[in-house]
Write a structure and sequence with these properties.
This protein is an alpha+beta fold. The two termini are about 25 Å apart.
């Protein structure tokens, strides 16, 4: 799945972590081999940077992988957007008919455990290097954790421990994308885009008003 804000081919240039940041990581019990050197600099940047107890990060949700080695918190009440993706890449990598994904800023997540136990996969080059955009998973149980782009991350709500139905409703998908590649029909009345939303045709049982709106926009383009 490719989402606006997640596009990119290489990791952007960033400053090395400060000595204070490395000292703080060491004080939390991290070994020198886990925090020193250029190969560990990603651990000090969003979305992998661990927020200290005195930070302004306000945790609203907790999530994690199947085996429990990777745990994280979210500070944003509601995702920037949420979608069902039916592209063939998501079908294969998730082993499911479609993917439920929610978009957040990188600064919205805080890993409380296991951010050293992550693995990467670049579906474009089919390599396991940390190159943006990339897919992130637990290196032990292989649970997909997120897709990381240049500025945004794409999380999977099924990993979040919602306390009630109201919390879960905040993550309700707004549409289906790449519905042309679907392997199952979902007649829920939500907009269904052949490819990316707002950049392709609406198909199937999309709401009539949404279809009319898209036709007007296409005529004006």
């Amino acid at each position: 799945m490719t989402v606006r804000g997640l596009a990119g081919t290489t990791e952007p240039s960033m400053a090395a972590p400060s000595e204070a940041a490395r000292d703080a990581a060491a004080a939390r019990g991290n070994q020198s081999a886990d925090i020193e050197g250029a190969e560990n600099e990603w651990k000090f940047r969003a979305p992998y940077q661990v927020h200290g107890e005195d930070s302004d990060f306000q945790a609203l949700y907790d999530g994690g992988c199947h085996c429990g080695r990777v745990r994280y918190q979210l500070s944003r009440r509601q995702p920037l957007d949420s979608k069902f993706c039916h592209c063939t890449t998501c079908q294969v990598l998730h082993g499911a008919p479609f993917q439920w994904a929610a978009i957040f800023h990188k600064e919205d997540i805080n890993f409380t455990q296991g951010h050293h136990d992550l693995g990467w996969y670049d579906s474009g080059s089919r390599t396991t290097v940390h190159k943006l955009p990339c897919k992130v998973s637990c290196s032990y149980c292989r649970t997909p954790i997120m897709d990381e782009g240049r500025n945004m991350i794409l999380l999977f709500p099924t990993l979040i421990k919602f306390k009630n139905a109201e919390e879960r409703s905040r993550f309700d998908p707004t549409c289906h994308i790449f519905y042309k590649s679907r392997v199952v029909d979902i007649l829920d009345g939500k907009p269904k885009w052949a490819g990316m939303n707002d950049k392709s045709d609406l198909i199937e049982d999309s709401a009539p008003d949404t279809v009319k709106k898209r036709k007007r926009e296409a005529e004006e383009e």
